[in-house]
Design goal:
The protein has helices at about 5-10, 75-95, 110-120, 120-125; strands spanning about 20-25, 30-35, 40-50, 50-60, 65, 100-105, 130-135, 140-145. Strands 1, 2, 3, 4, 5, 6, 7 and 8 form an 8-stranded mixed β-sheet that branches. By secondary structure, the protein is an alpha+beta fold. Helix 1 (about 5-10) packs across helix 2 (about 75-95). It has one domain (about 5-145): Aminopeptidase. It has 4 helices and 8 strands; from the N terminus they run αβββββαβααββ.
């Protein structure tokens, strides 16, 4: 019998690839990790404006070419786990007001990201963040936003 999504997600979140920050600058931060077939991937965090950042993920090729479209092979659960772990570390370390990323509807990434964010909502809430998304053409734009502090 196939495991349901909740069990698969729970298992996948426990097994990220080893990763490390290779660039930590004021406007740009990069993480590099390798999958089980030794392909190199990058998670890029770029300051868009003020304390709003964007996060993108892709396979890192020779030079500085990053293929953001070709990420659907290998162990996708471990990839997702790694990206989630990097995102959580980024939120805790930098504390941005908002992080944005996109998911394509036709590639199925939007639905996967929606499920992942829903499942991990308590984890984000515990560090002071919430999430939302809006449709835009053939993709969704996702927002991870710092919760407003109530004044005592």
């Amino acid at each position: 019998m196939m495991k349901d999504f909740q069990n698969l997600l729970r298992e996948s979140l426990d097994s990220p690839y080893k990763w490390k920050w290779v660039i930590k600058e004021e406007r740009e931060m990069h993480v590099i990790f390798y999958d089980s077939e030794n392909r190199r991937f990058i998670v890029r965090c770029l300051r868009l404006f003020g304390t709003v950042w964007g996060i993108a993920f892709g396979e890192f090729h020779h030079g500085d070419f990053i293929d953001y479209s070709n990420t659907g092979y290998g162990d996708s659960r471990r990839m997702l786990s790694t990206i989630l772990e990097v995102t959580m570390d980024f939120l805790k370390t930098v504390g941005p007001a908002e992080v944005r990323f996109t998911g394509e509807v036709v590639e199925g990434k939007a639905q996967l990201y929606k499920k992942m964010l829903h499942k991990t909502e308590p984890t984000f809430n515990n560090i002071g963040y919430t999430h939302d998304f809006v449709p835009k053409g053939d993709k969704f734009i996702f927002f991870i936003t710092k919760m407003k502090q109530e004044n005592s």
